[in-house]
Every structure is written in structure tokens, then in C-alpha cells.
Design a protein that fits this description.
This protein is an alpha+beta fold and about 775 residues long. The protein has 21 helices and 25 strands. It has five domains: about 100 residues, Four Helix Bundle (Hemerythrin (Met), subunit A) (Up-down Bundle), CATH 1.20.120.720; about 200 residues, Methane Monooxygenase Hydroxylase, Chain G, domain 1; about 100 residues, Alpha-Beta Plaits (2-Layer Sandwich), CATH 3.30.70; about 170 residues, Pleckstrin-homology domain (PH domain)/Phosphotyrosine-binding domain (PTB) (PH-domain like); about 90 residues, Roll (SH3 type barrels), CATH 2.30.30. Pfam families: Myosin_head (PF00063), Myosin_TH1 (PF06017), SH3_1 (PF00018).
Length: about 775
């Protein structure tokens, strides 16, 4: 198979290099013909033909219009050149084959852009420099010319073409050195002269180097970048002066591969060997065979042609020392490298020039978002649009210039200003999109929560008119602001729901409790006065009950629009009242399903049983039970009438049982919910729910103005507002309650969906009272 041929060819090449056992006479002969058998077998060629082509070559001559082929026997030196030329040709062509195969394997069907990395030997200056250093330095000279053409020269020419005010920077253009090496005629370059000398060499190459030196002195001796001495010559490269020793120049350049050898390899029985030599002998037979120098020159020019099609970026490497150790800095060496790499001129051009340039159209497209006039597209002249953008960010006029078709920006900081402003604009728009999306997602989530909560009571319980479309807030107490309540909850437990509710005991006496729901438990937190100790007499929070979610047996509700619900647990039940019962039950149902993988049992009946807690006064104590009965009444306010072991609750009809939330009402009440939630957090005991508040204010009598002086202007008449009258006096029991007297008249500014009233005390402190006025007599 083909993958085996390269290894086979390399073995044949090594064998070939050991074949010639040359006799001292002038004519090359082979002592042992058997040594050719194995190389001939590996290369797939005839042994006799291999011997013939290694020791002789066919030369064509023309006499009077007639052509004649002469078989010329090679001397020892010529035979060695022929052998080495064939071995080198095989090595080079197999190497090219491998590279080409790898490239084809990595090639894609469609390539629009590509990135190439060129890593070559740097400039070489040794004590003794020969033909190899000459070729390497020539390639570096060509690459330096590209650097000058594409950076220093091209940049300054661009400023002139665009009409930019500019101070020219002097720099050394090494094109004159490249011409000195590679020119063909007028005057011929060093490589051309070298090829001529190698072509005229006869049987013996002795003295060819001196002949080359003499010709160089004759044809380019007066060149300003060329000097010679008795054993070599000096070239003034861009990196400095380099002296080259002439010894072996012609011998190393003679990489002659005659057509006889190509014809020999094309006669191989192996297809792979044939494919390595695709030359057309009928066309390529004319002309001089190529040399090592001519190949280097061709490859260098091909490389330059490839690089000129790209946009190169240069990485300049500086070698600080020869010891390859840290903290070893040879200043003279570094200074020399900085000088011959042209960094000084490059920095001078960069400093005096402009760091950024872009055609007007692309500049407008990139930064159009900065102003409304340019977004989404500029309607006027492109140059005026660019000027408008630069002025909109208050860029200093000395930091930019406008050419004929491009804008030039001097300092990178000025460009960074544009980029930062652009990023800020995109960031602002991105945040607006995020906000809109999150708002949409939150609305969708809350609508889903409302629908799920509504489905719990759908066709089972009547709904209140002003609560069915209410937004869900969750934490109506503001647990983060109340560490005295948070202490009873686990440190990492999430607060799903928190509200101050009313709890009824075995005598149906109402008392306030803070109801807290987490993913694991339900907490009921109350307050008691400390009876002993240093905090005696102070009111402290006390955990009254803790129920695990999975231990809830069921929840009982009536079929009417009241806010009463019963939590049934194994030990005893809790009779509670909350205006946010639907939200609480919805969240409790989700947590219960997560814990038990089942639905929360909800029971609906107008006669409910409440199991009481066992008393601790003796072994004969029993909890017993109480009954809650619901009857049809009038109005939206529940009227509670306890009688022995039965609590009778009457309330008027509400919305039909099949009522569901509507999106229109949800959007209308959204503006009130956020405001009400923010105001509810400071008031722990009685936070107002979402919806419109009922603001109330105590009336005060108008005092006459003091005598003397200019009387005060008459106050504007107060607007007529509804009023209510307190039926009895009440003394505040906590810091968030308000004391008032019987028969106090209170103005009702607004009526809301709940029965919490905000009042203003004498000292302008805001308090909240619950069901204290005449319309809400039965709720107190």
C-alpha cells in the first residue's frame, strides 16, 4: 500500500548513498555491482540502468540543425554530485508528498477564511557563515521586506492617499538588499552569478569558489551594500553586516538533477515512485537544471506571494541571552536584535500615526447604536455620520482625522471609549430585554399559580369579589426584617408563606398568630409576657406549634366565601382565619405533594369538626371537639356567634363557585400590589394585603387662631368623605396597635378589599387597627 512506500523509499535512499566505491582514477567505476541490487529493488528500477545513470549521463548537442546524443562518462566528483542529487531529490519529494497528503486530509470542502502560522529560523550570524546562512538570511530579508511593505511603507502611503496630516518617518527599506541577492540582470544578483559559475563548472570543481568571488567583485563590487575580501564577501543586511566564507559555496549550490535521473525514476515499476517525478521530459528537457539557490529563491518568492494575499500579524521574539537561564540579560545582544528587527522605526511610525482606521461605512455600522440619529442607519453623508458619532461621545478633535474614505483614530484609549460606550448601549438594551422577558415569565408564572390555586376551590367554594384576582406575594410579614421570628425557622429554609392570622381556641376566643409555611413545616408563632427572670414583663415571641407538612391529614373549609379553614393533624386541629387562605392552601398543596407524592385532601362542608388539644390537668382530661356551622347571612362580613361548643358563622353569598381569575383584572390590580407589599413589611402584626388600602384618619377639632397679629388664612374646606364611629374604647396591646376612645369619628379615605384600616395617631405615627369601626363591628 502507498503508506508503506515512504519508508521503503527512505531505505532505498540510505542504501543508494553507500553504493559508490570509487576508484582513484578520474573515471568513476563500481567495485561491487551487487551493492546496487537492493537499492534497485527498493526503488523498483533496473540495476544496470541505475549503474549507468550513476556513472554517466546523456548530453544532447546540435550541429548545423542536427541533434546528437552523446553518452558522457562521469569522473569521481561528478558521480558523487549525481548520487547526492538523486538522494536529495528523493528525500525532498517524499517530504513534499507527506505534507501534501496531510494537507489534503485536513482540507475542508468550503474554506472562506484560514489562519496560518509561519515559524522560521531567525537571522543567523556566526563566526563562520556559509551557504546555509546565506540562504536563511535571504529568506529573512524577504520577510523583512514584506514587513516594511505592509506596515511602514503602506501605512505612510495610506496617510498620503487619504489626505491625513502626517510627519513622514525615515526608515531603511531593504528592497535594495533583496535585489542585490536575487536580481537576474542589470546588474545580476549574487544568486544569478552563483548559478552561472556552477553551470560552467566542468569535471573538477576545484577553484570554482575563487572564480565566483572574482565575478562578484567584477559585477557588483561597487554596490553600497556589498564588500569583499580575499576569502569571501560581506553583505549589509537589515540586521547588520554579515561576512560569508566562500569555501563550499559552489559545491553546496550544485544540487543538479539531470533529466537522465528523472527518466530513470519514471521507469520504476512502483506507481508511488513514478508519481514523485511527474515532469514532462519532452517539454522540460530544454533549459538548465535547477540548483539549490534557485530553488530557495523560488520558494521564498512563492512564500511572499502567499503572505501578500493575507493580513499578517507579527510576533517578534527577542533572545535575551545564550545561557538559557532566567535573570541573565545581555543588553548588547538585546539592543542589536531590537535594531535589526526594525522595532525602533516601527514604534516611531506607530506613535506618530493612528492606531485605528476604518472605512466610513463599516465604522457607521459598528457604532450606529450610540445615537438615535445613526440607528438603525444613517440617512445622510457617511462622513458627516462618522463626525456625528465622534462628537456624540465628546472625543477630542486631536484624537481623530477624517480622510477621503476612512476615519483615523490616534490613541487606543479613544477607541476603547467608543467600544465601552457601545457595550453600555448593548448592555442597556440587553437588560431591557431581560427585564421584559422576566416580567413576562413572572406574569405567566403568577397566572399559573392563580389558576392552580383557583382550581383547588373551583366548583367547591364561593369566592370573594376582591380576592379572586389578587396577586400572590408570599411573605406578607417580611421575615428578613424580623429575626425574632426567623429564629424559629431553619437557617436555610425558604419562606413560602408568612402572614398574621387569627386563631380560635376551644372557647372560640380569637388571638393573633404568625403563620409561616416552609417546604418542610408549618409554624404558628405567638407572643407571651415573660413571667420571671431579667426580662420579666417583656413581650416575647413564642413558638406555639410546629407541624410537619407530611403529617397534615387534611384541610377543611366551608362552601361559602368566608376565610375560615381547619388544619387537621394527628394530635389536634387548628382553627384559623386568613384573608390569604387560597394562596396558603395552594403553596401547602405543592409542598404536600412533593413530600408525599399525593394530593392534599381538601374537605368542603358547612358543618366542620375541630379536634381539641388534650388538657394537662389530670389523667381524666380529654381533648374533645368543637363544631363550626356556616349559615347563609347578609353582606360580605362574617358574623361569629359562639354558643357552648358550637360556633355559628353567617355570611352573605359571594361569587359563584365556578368563578376563575381574569387576566384583565390581574393587570389592573398589579400596580397596587407592589406598593402594598412594600408598605406591609414594616408592620409585622397586621400587614395590609395586596389591593387598595383603606386609609383612615382621626378627626380633630379646629382650634381658633391665637389673638393678636395677623389672623391665619382660612383653611381650605376638607373634602366630604365617608366616616365611621368607634363603638367602644380600645387600649393598644402591642407596639403596632392604636389606642382609641369610644365614639371617635374617623374619616374613611378609601375602601379596599380587606378590613385592615390605617390610622394616624396624635403624634403622626402610622398604626393599623383591625375591625375597630362601626361597619366592621361583627369582625372585632
Amino acid at each position: 500500500t502507498i503508506p508503506c512506500f515512504p519508508l521503503q523509499r527512505i531505505t532505498g535512499q540510505l542504501r543508494l548513498e553507500r553504493t559508490l566505491k570509487l576508484q582513484p582514477p578520474a573515471v568513476a567505476t563500481l567495485i561491487f555491482l551487487a551493492v546496487l541490487a537492493f537499492p534497485a529493488f527498493l526503488l523498483g528500477i533496473n540495476q544496470d540502468r541505475l549503474k549507468e545513470k550513476l556513472t554517466s549521463r546523456q548530453m544532447d548537442s546540435k550541429w548545423g540543425g542536427k541533434s546528437e546524443s552523446i553518452n558522457v562518462t562521469l569522473n569521481v566528483e561528478q558521480a558523487c554530485y549525481t548520487r547526492d542529487a538523486l538522494a536529495k531529490a528523493l528525500h525532498a519529494r517524499v517530504f513534499d508528498y507527506l505534507v501534501d497528503s496531510i494537507n489534503k486530509a485536513m482540507e475542508k470542502d468550503h474554506e472562506e477564511y484560514n489562519i496560518g502560522v509561519l515559524d522560521i529560523y531567525g537571522f543567523e550570524i556566526f563566526q563562520k557563515n556559509g551557504f546555509e546562512q546565506f540562504c536563511i538570511n535571504f529568506v529573512n530579508e524577504k520577510l523583512q521586506q514584506i514587513f516594511i511593505e505592509l506596515t511602514l511603507k503602506a501605512e505612510q502611503e495610506e496617510y498620503v492617499q487619504e489626505g491625513i496630516r502626517w510627519t513622514p518617518i525615515d526608515y531603511f527599506n531593504n528592497k535594495i538588499v533583496c535585489d542585490l541577492i536575487e536580481n537576474k540582470v542589470n546588474p545580476p544578483g549574487i544568486m544569478s552569478i552563483l548559478d552561472d559559475v556552477c553551470a560552467t563548472m566542468h569535471a573538477v570543481g576545484e577553484g570554482a569558489d575563487q572564480t565566483l568571488l572574482q565575478k562578484l567583485q567584477m559585477q557588483i563590487g561597487t554596490h553600497e551594500h556589498f564588500n569583499s575580501w580575499n576569502q569571501g564577501f560581506i553583505i549589509h543586511h537589515y540586521a547588520g553586516k554579515v561576512s560569508y566564507d566562500m569555501d563550499g559555496f559552489c559545491e553546496r549550490n550544485r544540487d543538479v538533477l539531470f533529466m537522465d535521473l528523472i527518466e530513470l525514476m519514471q521507469s520504476s515499476d512502483l506507481p508511488f515512485i513514478k508519481a514523485l517525478f511527474p515532469e514532462n521530459l519532452q517539454v522540460d528537457k530544454k533549459g538548465r537544471p535547477t540548483t539549490a539557490g534557485s530553488k530557495i529563491k523560488k520558494q521564498a518568492n512563492d512564500l511572499v506571494g502567499t503572505l501578500m494575499k493575507c493580513t499578517p500579524h507579527y510576533i517578534r521574539c527577542i533572545k535575551p541571552n545564550e545561557t538559557k537561564k532566567p535573570r541573565d540579560w545581555e543588553e548588547s545582544r538585546v539592543k542589536h536584535q531590537v535594531e535589526y528587527l526594525g522595532l525602533k522605526e516601527n514604534i516611531r511610525v506607530r506613535r506618530a500615526g493612528y492606531a485605528y482606521r476604518r472605512v466610513f461605512k463599516k465604522f457607521l455600522q459598528r457604532y450606529a447604536i450610540l445615537t438615535k440619529a445613526t440607528w438603525p442607519s444613517w440617512k445622510g453623508d457617511e462622513k458627516q455620520g462618522v463626525l456625528h458619532l465622534l462628537q456624540s461621545v465628546n472625543m477630542d478633535p486631536d484624537q481623530y482625522q477624517l480622510g477621503k474614505s476612512k476615519v483615523f483614530i490616534k490613541a487606543p484609549e479613544s477607541l476603547f471609549l467608543l467600544e465601552e460606550m457601545r457595550e453600555r448601549k448593548y448592555d442597556g438594551y440587553a437588560r431591557a430585554i431581560q427585564k421584559a422577558w422576566r416580567k413576562y415569565a413572572a406574569r405567566k408564572k403568577y397566572v399559573q399559580m392563580r389558576e392552580e390555586a383557583s382550581d383547588l376551590l373551583l366548583n367547591k367554594k364561593e369566592r370573594r369579589r376582591n380576592s379572586i384576582n389578587r396577586n400572590f406575594v408570599g411573605d406578607y410579614i417580611g421575615m428578613e426584617d424580623h429575626p425574632e421570628l426567623r429564629q424559629f425557622v431553619g437557617k436555610r429554609e425558604k419562606i413560602d408563606f408568612a402572614d398574621t392570622v387569627t386563631k380560635y381556641d376551644r372557647r372560640f376566643k380569637s388571638v393573633k398568630r404568625d403563620l409561616v409555611l416552609t417546604p418542610k413545616c408549618i409554624y404558628l408563632i405567638g407572643r407571651e409576657k415573660v413571667k420571671q427572670g431579667p426580662e420579666k414583663g417583656q413581650v416575647k415571641e413564642v413558638l406555639k406549634r410546629r407541624m410537619e407538612v407530611e403529617r397534615i391529614l387534611s384541610v377543611s373549609l366551608s362552601t361559602m366565601q368566608d376565610d375560615i379553614f381547619i388544619l387537621h393533624e394527628q394530635e389536634y386541629d387548628s382553627l384559623l382565619e386568613s384573608v390569604f387562605k387560597t394562596e396558603f392552601l395552594s403553596l401547602l398543596s405543592k409542598r404536600y405533594e412533593e413530600k408525599t407524592q399525593g394530593k392534599l385532601p381538601l374537605k368542603f362542608s358547612n358543618t366542620l369538626e375541630v379536634k381539641l388539644k388534650k388538657e394537662s390537668w389530670g389523667p381524666w382530661s380529654s381533648g374533645g371537639s368543637r363544631q363550626v356551622q356556616f349559615i347563609q347571612g347578609q353582606g360580605d362580613i362574617a358574623i361569629l356567634k359562639p354558643s357552648n361548643k358550637v360556633l355559628q358563622i353567617s355570611i352573605g353569598p359571594g361569587l359563584p363557585k365556578n368563578s376563575r381569575p381574569t387576566r384583565r383584572n390581574l393587570s389592573q390590580s398589579r400596580g397596587y400590589s407592589s406598593r402594598s407589599q412594600a408598605q406591609s413589611y414594616p408592620m409585622r402584626a397586621a400587614p395590609p394585603p395586596p389591593g387598595k388600602f383603606v386609609y383612615v384618619r382621626r378627626q380633630s377639632t379646629n382650634r381658633p387662631p391665637p389673638a393678636g397679629g395677623r389672623p391665619k388664612p382660612q383653611p381650605k374646606p376638607k373634602p366630604q368623605v365617608p366616616q365611621c364611629k368607634a363603638l367602644y374604647a380600645y387600649d393598644a396591646q402591642d407596639t403596632d396597635e392604636l389606642s382609641f376612645n369610644a365614639n371617635d369619628v374617623i374619616d374613611i379615605i378609601k375602601e379596599g378589599i380587606t378590613f385592615w384600616l390605617k390610622c394616624v395617631a396624635v403624634h403622626s405615627t402610622i398604626f393599623e387597627i383591625y375591625g375597630c369601626t362601626k361597619p366592621f363591628k361583627t369582625r372585632f
